[in-house]
């Protein structure tokens, strides 16, 4: 079965190509093409899981040489193990549900066919990253995802904000990708092959400097793609795209790719503890900072975007402290509950017609299904049992505790604080959106079945993905082949009770505040201290001052130099030539006799000179 | 008869022809001046033919050719002069300056200043 894994990226790619050029040939149009493509990929992914789960640690590879470049050849092929198969199922499920949801959400959009095809391409690129057996193959998927995020974030290109956000997403991730590319070079040359298996196997025997340099460079790409500090700024702005796209980007593709690559190349990072420490520090900063920024945000989608940044930091922190299984598991549960939350948000936004929570409230009466499923997602995000996020998040914290040392302790402490902040902003989100009284003017109604169906399914996943942990932690571990050197997954009752107590404390605090002053936003209770939170700690402003404005000034200077210097030289040359030519033009007066006179004079001069020369 | 007399006369004729072509305003007079130059050449051809005592009389034969060509040239030339007169009511050569390089509508420097931002 595993030799058919190439179908995984191929089917959505075909759907994308067909959706772009040939959807008029297909009965049912672009929606059918897109849904059949993702459903086909899902079938393949499920079959792969069935095929590999007998022995998830075993790697099934089928690759062939592609093109020889220099000394090290490039292969193209697939590499499937438990991790790849399970993540592929996750990607396909979310992509399929997003496609189904989009048929209703994007109904009437004039560019729906392009949109659906781009989502298919996005899915295909992510699946290519998941099954790639060669680092360059992986890079292709990685870069195509960057392109797709640009296209989809800029779907509403008529608006200034969407255009700026698309460019910001593209450029910011691009900065990281440059490092990623060079990381691939370093590791590939160090291992003598760009094969994922060869690189992971050879990581231990490479020179230490090579591994560290390679891992740190790869980390640049991961930080960009997975929106970690300091390259996190693109993700909140990417909310300018359609909401189902946000669900896809935040749950299944793009940001998940960064974490997945670290998990996939984990032996490389284990061989370079410095890189893991850097990752852990970045994750700690991002985790807490993003959660605090989420607490102050009024835009519903941006709250969710910040929460994605924060949750991805959990996964990165888990990987940094050796909690490989917990991190990958959190990737899966996060995919379920974040897709759920975004799709629920989409269902809300479509009805109320605004992103601002200050114009929502009290929606639970009119949208009970959306409210119920969103509550499940919120519970999972906040880390309250029995929802899946609680267990996977606790797995990461447990791994940090067991890892110990400065890094483990700081991840544990920051993680626990972030649990509190997370529960606080999730509660605020639910309070401001669904509870209280409605502050807007739209006519509220529940979303159609095509949109609520995926919500219910995802809510099911958000609960069930936590189930494997209940009897023992063995269930999760058996899904993936755990790389040697990572901490085993330990989810204890004590840890879960502690995190959920912390989370419930935050929930209770906000509920009490809400009961006291139902009309005010909880963030207002912080007073002036809320300002850094509202501005997301001025990171955008800092970039603007340090990078963007100097670059603009430099560009303006270059334009000026070009205009005054280079361009003026060119124009001056032209003017001088035409002035000089102007003198000669006077001779061309149209009088034939003048021409002939010149001719005769010329002939006389020649004759006289020749005669003189001959005589001499 | 000494050669120099014939060649001198020929040079005189040719100089008169050149003067006529360059200085006369009437197109018919210009054509006549051209004839003068051609015939100056003919005179040279015949004179040198006699001087060198050429058995084949190439100079004389060549002079006959020139006479024929000159006749044809005058035919064409007068036809052009007639056509010009019908069009423009004048045969003054210095008035026919339509092929002068006059200022075009877009000069080179205006194009250059367009390209500057």
Count of DSSP strands of chain B: 0
Net shape of chain B: elongated
Radius of gyration of chain B: 22 Å
Helix content of chain B: over 70%
End-to-end CA span of chain A: 100 Å
Return the string of H and E elements of chain A.
Answer: HHEEHHHHHHHHHHHHHHHHHHHHHH
Count of DSSP-assigned helices of chain A:
24
Query: How many structural domains are formed by the residues of chain B?
Result: 1
The DSSP helix count of chain B reads 4
The sequence of SSEs of chain B as H and E is HHHH
Set out the fold topology.
The complex is a heterodimer of chains A (616) and B (117).
Chain A: H1 7-22, H2 30-52, E1 60-69, E2 72-80, H3 82-105, H4 112-131, H5 135-153, H6 160-191, H7 196-202, H8 208-225, H9 234-237, H10 243-252, H11 255-264, H12 266-271, H13 273-296, H14 300-320, H15 324-352, H16 368-382, H17 388-403, H18 405-433, H19 449-464, H20 474-477, H21 493-516, H22 531-534, H23 539-585, H24 592-615
Antiparallel strand pairs in A: 1-2
Helix pairs in contact in A: 1-2, 1-4, 2-3, 2-4, 3-4, 3-10, 3-15, 3-19, 4-5, 5-6, 6-8, 8-11, 8-13, 10-15, 11-14, 11-15, 13-14, 13-18, 14-15, 14-17, 14-18, 15-16, 15-17, 15-19, 16-18, 16-19, 17-18, 17-21, 18-21
Chain B: H1 3-23, H2 27-52, H3 58-88, H4 108-115
Helix pairs in contact in B: 1-2, 2-3
Brief overview, please?
The complex is a heterodimer of chains A (616) and B (117). Helix content of chain A is 72%, strand content 3%.
């Amino acid at each position: 079965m595993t030799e058919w894994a190439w179908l995984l990226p191929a089917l959505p790619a075909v759907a994308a190509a067909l959706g772009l050029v040939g959807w008029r040939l297909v009965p049912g149009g672009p929606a059918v093409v897109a849904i059949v493509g993702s459903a086909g990929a899902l079938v393949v992914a499920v079959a792969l899981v069935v095929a590999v789960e007998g022995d998830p640690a075993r790697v099934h590879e089928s690759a062939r040489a592609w093109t020889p470049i220099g000394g090290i050849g490039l292969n193209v092929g697939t590499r499937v193990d438990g991790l790849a198969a399970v993540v592929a199922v996750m990607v396909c499920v979310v992509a399929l549900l997003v496609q189904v949801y989009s048929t209703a959400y994007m109904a009437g959009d004039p560019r729906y066919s392009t949109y659906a095809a781009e989502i298919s391409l996005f899915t295909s690129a992510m699946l290519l990253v998941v099954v790639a057996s060669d680092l360059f193959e992986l890079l292709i998927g990685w870069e195509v995802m960057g392109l797709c995020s640009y296209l989809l974030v800029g779907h509403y290109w008529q608006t200034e904000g969407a255009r700026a956000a698309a460019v910001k997403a593209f450029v910011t991730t691009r900065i990281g990708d440059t490092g990623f590319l060079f990381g691939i070079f370093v590791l590939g040359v160090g291992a003598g092959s760009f094969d994922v298996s060869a690189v992971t196997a050879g990581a231990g025997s490479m020179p230490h400097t090579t591994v560290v340099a390679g891992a740190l460079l790869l980390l640049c790409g991961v930080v960009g793609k997975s929106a970690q500090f300091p390259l996190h700024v693109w993700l909140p702005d990417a909310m300018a795209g359609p909401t189902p796209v946000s669900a896809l980007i935040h749950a299944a593709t793009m940001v998940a790719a960064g974490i997945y690559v670290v998990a996939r190349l984990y032996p490389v990072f284990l061989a370079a503890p410095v890189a893991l420490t850097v990752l852990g520090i970045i994750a700690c900063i991002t985790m807490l900072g993003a959660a605090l920024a989420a607490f102050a945000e009024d835009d519903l989608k941006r709250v969710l975007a910040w929460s994605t940044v924060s949750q991805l930091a959990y996964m990165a922190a888990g990987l940094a402290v050796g909690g490989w299984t917990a991190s990958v598991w959190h990737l899966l549960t996060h995919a379920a509950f974040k897709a759920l939350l975004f799709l629920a948000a989409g269902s809300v936004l479509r009805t109320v017609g605004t992103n601002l929570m200050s114009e929502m409230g009290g929606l639970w009466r009119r949208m009970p299904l959306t409210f119920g499923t969103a509550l499940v997602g919120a519970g999972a995000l906040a880390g309250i049992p029995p929802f899946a996020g609680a267990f996977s998040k606790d797995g990461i914290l447990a791994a940090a505790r067991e890892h110990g040392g400065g890094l483990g302790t700081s991840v544990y402490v920051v993680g626990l604080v972030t649990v509190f902040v997370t529960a606080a902003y999730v509660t605020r989100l639910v309070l401001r959106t669904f509870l209280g009284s409605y502050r807007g003017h739209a006519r509220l109604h529940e979303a159609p079945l095509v949109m609520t169906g995926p919500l219910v399914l995802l809510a099911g996943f958000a609960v069930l993905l936590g189930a494997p942990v209940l009897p023992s932690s063995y269930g999760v571990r058996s899904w993936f082949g755990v790389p040697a050197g990572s901490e085993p997954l330990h989810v204890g009752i004590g840890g879960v009770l502690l995190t959920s107590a912390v989370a419930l404390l935050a929930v209770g605090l906000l509920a009490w505040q809400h009961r006291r002053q139902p009309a005010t936003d909880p963030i207002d209770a912080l007073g002036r201290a809320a300002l850094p939170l509202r501005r997301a700690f001025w990171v955008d402003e800092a970039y603007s001052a340090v990078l963007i404005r100097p670059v603009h000034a430099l560009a303006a200077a270059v334009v000026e130099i070009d205009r005054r210097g280079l361009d003026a030289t060119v124009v001056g040359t032209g003017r001088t030539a035409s002035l000089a030519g102007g003198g000669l033009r006077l001779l061309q007066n149209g009088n034939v006799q003048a021409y002939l006179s010149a001719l005769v004079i010329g002939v006389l001069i020649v004759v006289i000179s020749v005669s003189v020369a001959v005589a001499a | 008869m000494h050669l120099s007399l014939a060649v001198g006369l020929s040079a005189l004729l040719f100089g008169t022809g050149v003067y006529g072509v360059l200085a006369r305003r009437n197109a018919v007079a210009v054509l006549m001046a051209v004839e003068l130059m051609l015939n100056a050449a003919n005179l040279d051809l015949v004179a040198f033919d006699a001087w060198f005592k050429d058995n084949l009389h190439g100079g004389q034969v060549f002079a006959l050719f020139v006479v024929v060509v000159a006749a044809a040239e005058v035919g064409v030339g007068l036809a052009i002069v007639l056509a010009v007169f019908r069009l423009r009511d004048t045969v003054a050569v210095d008035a026919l300056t339509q092929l002068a390089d006059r200022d075009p509508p877009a000069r080179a420097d205006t194009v250059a200043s367009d390209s500057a931002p």
